[in-house]
């Protein structure tokens, strides 16, 4: 129990036979329920977790691998079933520092946030020890996830050290959330659709010697697809179906004008290169004016979207 809130920690585990026992043993007393989900591990993760289980530990097992997101979803459902007020996610590899758990919970218990997440990129020293490919990937994914999710105040979206209230979880159609490595990004999109307040909490990461098992050639296309479809899902629900906000009008008109201007501009360039006749000033204006106006509309739409971030 933490500040009169029942806390459950969800631990997705896949091939974590070397770490899962320590993760269970080092869980602080403020945690009421430890929910370990063995995601069809081919090693002894399940047996080790069962052997290390205490009275507050529940060990679940997937017969078929569902991915890290699928394991977390199973854990969140179990947390709600157990009556947890807050459901926290900690990886089974021990790379999430339990000493910072109170800091992750405080925005929820003290300030009424529905979702909090760790942010490893809170200062210039945060990059020390982080592999360069992770730095680059985080920068790119941070911007793309801001754009898709509408949480322009959040950074480090792939950080899985999170806490969420039962009220926020009840708003999310968990069975529709992506179940693989893109889970965190898709969850943010669903949370924003439902106007859940979210905040970053500065928490340093612990990097071990483990080699990532992520297959980029499989993960990247799925992630891009999730972000692309998620943006349009959020746009439809928040700005068209539920409110028909001026943001929708600005974005649609801006996109149409920009595309029209670019097409006319390309056509004018092709004509200029293919024939000796000069392109008229009116044609160039027909390309330039819609393009510039479209850009202005799009920029204004994004500014309004930033202001609409749940705070």
Automatic annotation (TrEMBL):
InterPro entries: Glyco_trans_2-like, Glycosyltransferase_2, Nucleotide-diphossugar_trans. Residues 9-169 form the Glycosyltransferase 2-like domain. The keyword Nucleus does not apply. Pfam families: Glycos_transf_2. It comes from the Bacteria. Belongs to the glycosyltransferase 2 family. This is Glycosyltransferase family 2 protein.
